[in-house]
Amino acid sequence: MSEIKLSPQLFEDVQQAVIQHDAEAAEDVGLLLQYLGAVTGYLLGSQQFERAHKDAFLQELSGFTQHVMDDTDKKMQPAPQSQPLAGNAMGYWEPPAKG
What we know:
By secondary structure, the chain is mostly helical. The chain has helices at residues 8-21, 29-45, 51-76.
């Protein structure tokens, strides 16, 4: 696949284009994704490629979509909280000196 340039602005612009077409997509991410899938299917289907080439490209695109989703999901996860050390504490403690 070609190298692409993703940005928050691109994501916002694409979402807004779909929402302008169907306002319900603003509240229903599944509907928004259906539109994006339909656009992908339409654009690929309208190309003058052999069917096997279209199927292979769609498979590759599906894997790429999975990769982007996994990467984004990982980045959206909160950082793990540091856990206190388990076990016995080690060190030397002296009481404060009496004044």
